[in-house]
Amino acid sequence: MKFGPVPIGDALGAILAHSLRHGTVRLRKGKVLEAVDIGLLTEADVSEIVVAQLEDGEIGENHAAAQLINGFDVSPDSQTLRITDAFTGRTNLLAKIAGVVRVDAEKINAFNQINPMITIATVPDFHMADQGTMLATIKVISFGVEQDDVTKAAGLLRDAVTLEPPKLSTAALIVTSSDKMNPEKGIEAVRQRLERWGVALESVAVVAHDEQSISEVLPELDQDLVLILTETATSDIRDVAPSAVVSAGGRIERFGMPVDPGNLLFVGTLDRRAIIGLPGCARSPALNGTDWVLSRIACGINVRNEDIAGMGVGGLLKEIPSRPQPRNRRRQ
Q: Do 205 and 269 reside in the same domain of the chain?
């Protein structure tokens, strides 16, 4: 691609490199100059102008961006994704529904190594997306790029960014509570989290805070997912809630997670259903480790011991004002 100043008489069909305001003439950056534009600029005594001129084998930024986004192979009737039209060399991949984003970092990195003028940026792997969330943006930086590079880059995008939609539809919540504690705040916070993923909270059981009370309720529940919120924090894998799961015939996959707030979460299974033991911070609507685990399970993604162990990078979440002891304060 040629780039630089040219006499106004040689600018026909070239791409204007910078927005131009000269007298009454107003032309936007990226405009392909037509005869009428050249006439107006000549009348305004503009003798030279900075332009980009495509060479053989090159295509314009919007044409390139459109070809690149089509590499995702998103059909118009896709239930999860949609693409936008190209404008100023940019086009986007958007979520049609809420879900968990999967990103193939190898493909994305390979794409970005083909030509520095051809770029893609995405949300992180396992990002929690809502309807309308931008999942990826493609930007062709220069006014034109080689067709061969565009073809090569577009070929890397199939399944490079996907959206896992919610798979579960119902959930049950067991809350332990004494007469001194009102469980409604925690119940409502859990209900709102589930609603984000289209999961209905069908059953709420408020029981005493002991192993037997929880273990007796568990087999009676037939929802897709079971959550347990105890009035006091689960401090050990042998504490009340995890022990109740085991007593009922289930198993604990992992207790404790390297996400803060959210350290005291546990996950397990009972009769092939997932169980999430919620940390105390689940009573707050603020982002915490609960959201990372709940979103994956709701969208049909298995959460194993090694998956939670891998959440530490990026797992230091924003401090929330409701925490009684901020993390930067020493114990007295």
A: yes
pTM value?
Answer: 0.91
Are 302 and 201 within one domain?
yes
Q: How far apart are the first and last CA of the chain?
A: 67
- 19-40: per-residue pLDDT in tens? 999 888 999 999 999 999 999 9
315: its two tokens: 């797992």
CATH (domain of 35): 3.90.105.10
**CATH, residue 76:** 3.90.1170.30
Q: What's the CATH number where 229 sits?
A: 3.40.980.10
Backbone dihedral angles phi then psi of residue 82, each to the nearest 5 degrees: -145, 155
Q: Residue 102: what are its φ and ψ, rounded to 5°?
A: -115, 130
Q: Does 304 map to a domain?
A: yes
8 A C-beta contact, residue 189 and residue 282: yes
pLDDT tens per residue across span 254-296:
999 999 999 999 999 999 999 999 999 999 999 999 999 999 9
Final residue of a structural domain among 144, 164, 184: 164
φ and ψ at 106, to 5 degrees?
-60, -45
Q: Is the peptide bond preceding residue 242 cis, with omega within 30 degrees of 0?
A: no
Domain-embedded: residue 319 = no
CA distance 85 to 224: 39
pLDDT of residue 328: 56
Any domain includes 85: yes
Q: Which domain holds residue 49?
A: 2-53
